[in-house]
């Protein structure tokens, strides 16, 4: 049977363990030296140095003058509420997440085994990494798997951010362009996980833009439900698949 070892022992109560006194006793013959030559001299030096340090350390700086600047780091942008007629049901959202998960799983298998990649994988290059350059790219290319798989992590983030800027120009009452919607879905399907902080910010911004566009669609319009469909999908995927639950419907 192993013998229990105590680190600290209270001399007043031999049966209790606490931090009141050390269990290592140093002989009175041991002298304090600047450079210890044995274990007892080292322990004595440590004990003496510890006496010069306060038990509780407090910050003596006044940071209150910086408090007024802190809100810029935590300010949350507004998120437009959906009209009741446009709010998707949980069942519908679960179906979208399940379908999207299947697509992501297929892409993950492709990324893990290059022999399964499409024969003509496009080498994607953006001539000008700007909104103009991305608009030209989205107009000339099709959101095919062979094209999207040619995008690296940085380009995926840049492209998704560009798409958020493009849909911001949507005319009030209209929905996003069909091809732009296909590009958004393709980029979301290839977004790498775990998410980087920049990617999370881009996704949240995309969901907010979609919510804002949705809020400006007239519920009385005969095509309203069709128009909000892609917007609801993107808000759902960002909120529920990518776990930004505060933005979900």
TrEMBL record:
The keyword Amino-acid biosynthesis does not apply. InterPro entries: GEMIN2, Gemin2/Brr1. Gene3D superfamilies: 1.20.58.1070. It comes from the Eukaryota. The keyword Zinc does not apply. Pfam families: SIP1 (PF04938). GO terms for cellular component: SMN complex; spliceosomal complex. Keywords: Cytoplasm, mRNA processing, mRNA splicing. Part of the core SMN complex. The SMN complex catalyzes the assembly of small nuclear ribonucleoproteins (snRNPs), the building blocks of the spliceosome, and thereby plays an important role in the splicing of cellular pre-mRNAs. Belongs to the gemin-2 family. This is Gem-associated protein 2.
């Amino acid at each position: 049977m192993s013998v229990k070892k105590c680190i600290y022992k209270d001399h007043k109560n031999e049966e209790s363990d606490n931090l009141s006194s050390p269990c290592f006793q140093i002989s009175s013959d041991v002298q304090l030296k600047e450079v210890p030559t044995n274990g007892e001299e080292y322990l004595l030096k440590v004990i003496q140095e510890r006496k010069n340090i306060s038990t509780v350390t407090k910050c003596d700086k006044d940071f209150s003058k910086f408090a007024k600047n802190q809100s810029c780091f935590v300010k949350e942008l507004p998120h437009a509420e959906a009209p009741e007629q446009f709010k998707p049901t949980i069942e519908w959202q679960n179906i979208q997440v399940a379908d999207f998960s299947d697509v992501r799983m297929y892409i993950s298998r492709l990324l893990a085994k290059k022999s399964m990649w499409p024969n003509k994988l496009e080498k994607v290059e953006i001539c000008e990494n700007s909104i103009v350059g991305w608009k030209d790219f989205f107009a000339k290319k099709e959101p095919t798997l062979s094209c999207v798989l040619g995008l690296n992590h940085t380009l995926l983030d840049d492209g998704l951010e560009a798409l958020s800027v493009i849909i911001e120009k949507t005319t009030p009452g209209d929905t996003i362009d069909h091809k732009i919607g296909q590009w958004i879905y393709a980029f979301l399907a290839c977004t790498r996980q775990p998410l980087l902080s920049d990617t999370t910010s881009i996704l949240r911004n995309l969901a907010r833009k979609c919510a804002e566009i949705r809020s400006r669609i007239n519920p009385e319009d005969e095509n309203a439900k069709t128009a909000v469909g892609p917007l609801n999908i993107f808000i759902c995927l960002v909120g529920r698949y990518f776990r930004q639950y505060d933005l979900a419907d």
